[in-house]
Every structure is written in C-alpha cells, then in structure tokens.
Amino acid sequence: MMTNGQSSRLRSEHVSVAYNDQPVVHDLSLSIPDGTITTILGPNGCGKSTLLKSLARVLRPAGGSVILDGQLIHHLPTREVARRLGLLSQQATAPEGITVEDLVRRGRYPHQSLLQPPTRRDLEAVEKALALTGMTELRNHPVDHLSGGQRQRAWIAMILAQETPLLLLDEPTTFLDIAHQIEVIDLIKRLNAEEGRTIVMVLHDVNEAARASHKIVALKDGRILREGTPAEVLEPSLLAELYGVECDVFPHPEHGYPFCVPRSALPLDGEPPRADDTGIGIRQLRAGYGQVMVLKDISLDLPAGAITAIIGPNACGKSTLLRTCARLLKPVGGKVTLGGQEVHRGSHRAFARRLALLSQGPTAPPGFVVEDLVASGRYPHQGLLRQWRLADEAAVEAALSRCGLEDLRLRDVETLSGGQRQRAWFGMALAQDTPVLLLDEPTTFLDMAAQIGLLDLARALNRREGRTVVMILHDLNLAARYADHLVVMKGGEVAAAGPPAVVLSPDLLRAVFGIEATVIRDPRTGAPLILPNETPEAKPTPAPPMESLELAAV
Amino acid sequence: MTSSDAPMGVVTIRGGKGSRRWLSVSRAAGLALLLAGVVLVALLSLGVGSLTISLGDVWDGLFHYDKSSYDQTVIRSLRLPRTIIGLAVGGGLAVAGATMQAVTRNPLAEPAILGVSSGASFAIVTAVYFLGLTTPSQYLWFGFAGALGAAMVVLFIASAGRGGPSPVKLALAGVVLSSLLGAWTSALILLDEQTLDVARFWLVGSVAGRGLDTFWVVAPFLVGGAIVCLFLGHQLNVLSLGDETAQALGMRTARIRLLCSILVVLITGAAVSVAGPIGFVGLATPHIVRAIVGPDYRWVLPYSLLVGAIFLTGADVVGRVVAKPSELQTGVVTALVGAPFLIYLARQRALAN
Amino acid sequence: MAVFDYAASPRRPGHITVRSRFVALRVNYRVLLFALIASVLLLLLATYAMTLGSYSIPFSGVVKAVVGQGDPERLTVVRTLRLPRVICAILIGAALAMSGSIFQGLVRNPLVSPDVIGISEGAGLFAVFWIVTGFDLALLPAAAFAGAALTAMAIYVLTWKGGISPNRLILVGIGIGAMLRAGTNYLSVRYPVEQVRPAVVWQMGSIYGSDWGDVKLLTGLLLVIAPIAVALTWQLRALQLGDGVARSLGLPLERARLGLIVSACALAAVAVALAGPIGFVALMVPHIARMLAGPLSGSVMIFTGVLGALFLLGADMIAQHALPVSLPVGVVTGAVGAPYFLFLLYRANVRV
Predict the structure, then answer these.
(1) Do residues A151 and A92 touch, judged by C-beta distance below 8 A?
(2) In CATH, what number does A10-257+537-553 get?
C-alpha cells in the first residue's frame, strides 16, 4: 500500500491562510501520497481543519497554491474539483426528515446537469456507496433517526457516491463512542485497501491516528513539525513538543502499531479527606424524555469522596443519569439521594450549594469576561443585596487561580480557545464551592494536553479537598486511569460497576461496546489500558438485495 | 454495522427501487389532486361573492360570453381578473417563500424579508402623494421599482464584508430597512388625507378591483420567476446540506444564492405591486408542504405553487363570504388564518435556531 | 467595622466593592459614572428643549420658570405645556429602553423588542378601535394598556408548554402580532378616512399633548417597576448562561422568567399606552448601552434607562422643531435608528 507513495495528485505549495489578519497556516508545503491514508494531527487551534479546507478548495489561501493533478485548484472549475475530490465537512447538517438514500443521491450533484434525470450510472454509484457503507438496509430511514455512527456512515456514503479518487474527512469520529469510532475507521481503511482511494483526514486522538494511517502529519501553530509513518512521528520527544505533554510510547503487544500513554494521574501524596455526607444513592430510578424511557430501573451508589467515571456507548443514558442526579430532570420513578437527602425535594438554591454541574457545550452571553463567568458560580450563595461578600470574592479568586485563569480574567469568554473556555466554565462550577462536582463529558473537543490538565485538576480537588467527583468520559483509557470507581452503562441499565482494574476486561468491552481489545496494565500507574485490536479482515458487505427482492414479492 | 442496527420491520427492507417508485407515483398523484383543488377553488372564486352566480353562467361567461348577461359581465370584468391574480400571486409568493427559506436556511424567512413589501409601499405612497395617482394600474410600476430598489439595498448591505450575504445578515438588513421605509411611509401618509385614503386600501393587501391589464404587465416576472424557481429544486437540495458541503460538491453557493434572491425579488416585487403586501402565504405554505412531501425541494416547490394558489384564492373567497355584503381583505384573512398556524407550528416543534 | 466599607476592587478595574452588615455589592462605578454624565446631559437637553418653540424663552428663563419664578405667561408655557412633555419623553424613553434590554437578555437574541413580539400591536388594536369608534379619548391610554396587557398574557399562555422557551416566545409573539395587525388594518379600511386619520397618527407614536396627569401616572408606575427591573438583572445574568446552567446554579427558572416578563411587559405597556408604539428605542438603545458599557448588569440597566431617555427626548425635539410641520416622534426614531443599525450591519459587528 505504501509502495506507490511517491506519486501525488494533491499537494500544497507554500500555503498560508489567515482569519481576520490572524495567521493560521504558514507557508505550508505538503504532498499527499496517492493510495494512502494520511492523517493531520495536532493540538486545538493548530490549523488542521483550515489546512484540510484549503486542500478541498473550500477556503481560499491568502498565499501559495494548492495543486490538484498538476493544475492550480482554484483555476479548475468547482464541478471538476468535486469530481476528483470529496470533502466530509465537520459542519455538515442533514435537512430535517431526509432519508439516507436521498442524502446519498445528493452526492451525485457534480456528475449531473440541470433537468437531467438520474442516469443508470448515478443509480449504480448510489447503490455501491450504500453497499460499501453497509447502509443498504437503512436506505429509507430518516437521517435524524439514526445513531451517531450510522449517521456518519450515511455522510461518508454521500461523498462515496461522488466517486472521487480523493476523500478528505474532517474529524469523522468526534462525537462517536469507541465502538462507532472503530466502525468508521475500519470503513475508511477498507475503502483505502479495496478501492485504492486516497484519504486525508483530520483526527483528534493520537492513538486512533496511529491505528488508522499510513502517514501522519504533525501540525503545530500552522507549521509542519514532522511527517512520516506513525512509528516515525509518534515518539515521546515529538509528542512533548506537539502537545506539551510527556508521553510513553510502546507498541501494541499483538499488532505492533505505536500506542501513546501520557504520563499523568500519577499517585498524589496523602489520603483524601473523607466526606461521608456526599455519597449519591440511586434507587430504582426511571427517567426519560416524554414517552421515551431512557433509564430503566437503575440502582447504584456513587461513593463519597471518590472519583467516579461513567462510561458507555452513545445513547446509553449516561447524560440522562447525570442530569437526573443534578436535578435538571425529574425522575419518573424511584429516587436519587445526596448524603441521605432526597435530591428532587427542597429549594433549588440549597441544592446548588451542595452540588455543581459542568454541562456540555454551554455558551456565555456576549461580552462576559472570564471573571464575570466565574463569579456567576456564586449565585446560589448570594442574596439580592449581598452579592460580593468576602467569601464570594475569596471563592472566585480561589477558582481563578486553581484553573490557571488569573491572566485571562479580563478576557472575553468568546475569544478564548476551546481548552481555555472549558477551564473558565470549570472555574464557574468551582466557585460554586460545592462538596460534589458533576462533569458531563468535560474533555470532548479538547486536545491531549487540555484533557490531561482538566482531569489532573479534578483529581487534585478530590485528593486534596475530598470533593466527590462524578464525570462522564468518552475516552475509556482516561476513565480507567482517573477513576476510583467505574460505572459502565448500556441501554439504560448498569452493565458493571466497581474499581476499573476489576471491571474492565476484554469480555466486558465486547459485551458493552462490541469491540475486540487487549487490556494490559499501564506500567507507570497500574491502571488498565485498553488497546483495540486490529480488525483482521474488513467485514464483507451485506449481500446485494437478492433476498430483499424476494421479501418484497411475498 | 451489526445486523441489530437494522430495524426488524420488513417494510423498510422491501426493494428500495420499488418503494421509491411508489413514492414518486403517490407524489405525482398528490400534484394532480392539488391541481383539481386549484380548479375547484377557481370555480368557487368565480361563483361566490356578494352576487352568487350559477356554474352554468360561469361556464358561459368563460367560453360563450354573452355581453347582455349581467352575471356573465361580472364574471368577465371582475371575478375572472381577481381569480387569475389571486392564483398567480398566491402561487408566486409561496414558491418565493420556499426558495427564501432554503436560501437563508431559516424556517422563518419569507419573501418580505428582503424589504420588498416595504420598498413597494414606500414607492407607491410617494407616487400617490407627489403625483396624485389613484388606481392600481397607475402606481404599479412605482411599486415594482420600489420593491427592486429596496431589495438591492438589502442585498448590497448584506453582501458587504467577509463571507458574502450570510442568512443572518440578510434577515437583519431586511428587517431594519423595512422599518426605516415604514417610518417614511407613515410620515407621508400623515401629511395628506388623500394619500392616506388611497394608501390604506393598498397597504392592507387585496386582489379585488385590479384589472387584467395591470396583471399582464408584471405577469412575465411573476410567472416567469416562479417557473425558473421550479427548476432550481436540485440546487436547493444541495444547498440545504450546508455551505461547505455544497461547495465541496462543486456548487458555487454565492452565485446560486444571488440568483435565487434575484428571482425571489422579481416574484415578490411583481406580486406586491399588484396585490399589496399580503403576509403569511410565503411563510406558512412551505411549512405545510414540507409536512406533506418531506424536505425534497424538487417536490416542495411545485407543491408550494399549487397550495399557495389555493390558500390565497381560498382566503379571498372566505373574505367575500364571512363579511357579506362587505368584504374582508385578502391580507387580513391570510394573517388571521396563517398566524394561528404559525403558533401551532411553534408549539409543535423546536423551529428556531 | 465601619457602617460602609468601600474599596476599589483590586483586580477588576472600574469596579468598587461596597460592604456593610446587610449589603455586599461590587459595583461597576465606571458605568454609574457614565449614567451620571448622561443624566447631566439629559438635564441640560431637557432645559434646552423647553427654550424652543414658537414662544421662545431664554435658558435662564426656563430654569426660573421651572422653580416658579418669572412672568405668568412664561410660567404657563413652561409648566403646563413644555415641562410635562419633556418629562414624559424622558420617562417613556427610559421605560422602553429597559423593557427592550430585558427582552433581549431573556430571549438571548439582540433582535427582540416589545414591538417584535406583538405587545405594541395589542395596544395598537385596542387604541385604534377606541379611536375609530369614537369612544372617550381621555380613556384611550387605559384602553391601550388593557390591549398590551391582554396581549402579553395571551403570548405567555400560548407559549407555555411545561415551561417558557424563549424561541417559542418570539414565534408566538410574531404570530399574535400579525393577527392583531391584520385586525388593525381591517379597522383602518372599514371606517371613514376622517376617523382613521387620528388612529394612524396614534399608531406612529407621539408624545404630543402630554399633561401632568400622564406624568403622575408614569412616575408612579416607573417608581415601582424600574427598581424591580434593575434588581432582577441579577437573575437575568444567571439566566443568560442558558437554562441548564441557570438551573444548576439554583435559579428557579420559570419564576425568574415570569418576574422578568411581567416587569418588561409592564414597562412596555405603560410606554405604549401613553405614547403609542414608538419604534426602535427598545430595539436600539440596549445595543448602544452594551457597546459603551459592557454586558448586562444592574448598573448597565440604569445606564440603559438614562440613555433611552436621552434618545427619545432628542428625537422628540427633532420631531417637534426640525421641520416646519411637527412630526410624530415615532417617525424620527425610525429614521434615525434604522440607518444606525444598517451601519452596524455593514461593519458586520452584529451577532445573533
């Protein structure tokens, strides 16, 4: 697969891009080897999506040129480019109610002209795209009703119908749980192996990139730090330079691809102070939205003074559970207690002094500076005329300094980077000064360094001050490393709960997530490490609809 | 990709081709049904009013015109122009509304969002005030010019800066320009009672009392624009996937958006200058249609054309019936019928944002 | 401990901390200073406004007449004609601006104002009906107020569905507004043009002919509602973080929203009842205030009120004196406000 790496249909020469006079990509030259999977990797804000968009002709670079098949891409007609190169955008939104097949058919746009009915070739391309992505059976389903992984597959089918030799994918696996991530990555690898398509993608996760790609381009501050095979690029010194995080890298025991483990969550000194009235008890809990019951009879104890991580596939009810514990959702049946007191009784303010929630993707009002946001966390402690007592000021200062926000205190929240913004919201929850902290996917969208920084902070709060922390995490390895107590959910029920080392086993991963993985011990922390196995052979696509025709005849 | 992802029902697995064909057939049948509806509502519009006319006289009035028959004269000189204008304006506004909602990707967009109605109002009131015009055929051209002028200002302001005419900027510029022109219109109306008297009947929106000669002048824009829009379904489908995806599929989004805006301006400008600012047809019709045929604009546009024609002509008929012997103006009826529908939609789904 | 403890906030420029036994507030004194300067300007402008007119009076003469000195003719002109109108302009401007500020914060959308969500239309329908059918004009404000209040209630009831969603509120408001406007339009073609004309004038918004009765009414209502509105900004700030965050901060969402909606509607209804639907003040002044003073807070709310007063008084002076004929003030606010907005848009600074 790598042998034909010399020829290159798509390359950039000295490309520079700037947003509002802020340079994002500098003088960047890159060749995409034909027939390979190339992944662009880097911390938040390094310009990786911008680079991908200028390669796809969606963004016009301020300087330099992108060359497709020896011609300047901006001199080629848009349609011509779209016949050679497909882009899966991160912002793609399906119109409400559209079916999978209608979506995929729209991928034929560059091959069609006005008023021309779909040709035989169009229909064949649509069928093939549906078959390749395994969406044939779901063709008449509305896209909004699909699971995250299926939806992403439908979008990939759309750009496959475009029948382009080059595919550009912008973060195709964000939002997906590990099973769906693997499903999408396997599909991408199969497209490359069986069809010889050249694939360029932007990824978030270093280990995912290592598993999926032939070539990795490490990008920082709009410049290429290094490019080469995963083994060449992913080594400790480069990762330290790229993310500012010390990592260990070792090969997967069976499959050989490199695996990076950041050095963090090392044991802290001292015993955590115990706080016994902050345990959360959940009894026969049933909750949901409208008619749909998401949580089906859950009974569970989240221990006081510990870090609990909740994991599970997409739509397993983790967020619903957390929102019910945080009193944002009323249970249909059963109850939740905090330190023995029922959560859904009593005043909202009194409860907000005991438990704080960092929710997913909140937005600050325009003009709010970091300090305004953090000070908002004092609301449950304030009165109409007593809003800024010494205690309030002290709590806000403490939260700012703990989250490392002192230098950013007067910055407009909207101007912050993703990682800084998440820290500011975390600061708000801290200023609430509660013994219990709930965090809903605090690390999504963050790069490795920001993830580690945030989780280390949560850990320090637990170990030094005895705060009870409950968090939902996407990344199984982070959950295994940071949690004292792990709750695994599936289909609105608890599949397992207990210490990570006991709970996490290949059998459980297979049963809950449907993935094959090797579980080893992290040599430094002793926490379990989950290494997904290489899928031996791309699964054969479901047979073309011979049987279904028979069914229709019945 | 496990088989458990697929629903167990057999219906969805049934041969894709067959079910698609069935869908197309049923949609085409729906179109035929709507066409029958248009004929029905047209007949009602010809027959019903302060004077009820029998079906036979309607027929004769259309095809065997007898000048001595009073009923047939009413048909020819009053009811027929009114019906034709109602059908054309309703259909045009609905198609323009559907196009506008696709272009701005905002379910609340309607043709008036480009400042077209207020531009036409301002120009007409100005003409009435300074030139003393009194009949629709006289001030028609002013309305059309005012509509185009206002829309050009809105497009110019919204296109300034980076990224071209973004949906949000388009909406903002339209709303604000409308209120500016509205203030000026009010000031002129106040200066002169004569102007007020003419303008108030125009501003409320109606298809009554317009001759066919007025209509033929703007018909090329109204009908022609709507027909061109009908062919843009495929483009609008791709545009609705988001700008970036549409560009990656080889579409020149800025160009398509501009073309659609121009068409919408021509259609709405023509409709407004004939019938006055009639609200809600352009806003509500595409929503009804999408509830029936789904999001495919190749179907949404023709359905909108027919449903819009039925809606406006029907509203006109209702306006003639409920307040006998006087009439409720079409614009009043469409708002009174359309607004509850908007509220219903707002309560049903998370519409905005 | 002293009764009051003042301290400049160490790390937050422009803020001062005030603490005593019952009070502990951090105040943005820079904004309050802005408000003070604007108030002084307002005072000067108001005095200057009273010098203008067919019977011209020098500046000093106005000041004397206000405190009750000078010849009787002057006293009449200033104290019974000009002073009430100026005070009305100030109070109505403040009420509209504060109302718009609350609505924009509540709905988290800078395009919202009492006119957009139908409250002015409600007042309009009732008032137009009152005028064209020839009822006693002395009771016109009461009729308009009833219209505004009923509309606000209808919007609230129709928006309620286990809670108030801000987006639903806008849509329902637009729908109700359109229906009411259709009603007003119908009335305007149903009646003879002589009866319609005063109704059209009223619909443009005008503070012509305000008297001390209006002033008393306005002052009384504003003395109650305005402090409540300023105090509620504390909750509004938490609400602006989004429903989920506000709830997890312990804010009783629906109760806070109800309080804010009631006070904003009351402010708008009072203003519309007395002056008719004056456009743009409620929409535009909050934007200017935020641009000058930063995100919403109690002090910014006060500043918004003063700025609204300044804007409407200025517009009224232009309406009254700039042209040989005197215009309704609503025409001027639109004509001044819209270009400003288009300019903002042209610079692409408006966020939605």
Answers:
(1) no
(2) 3.40.50.300
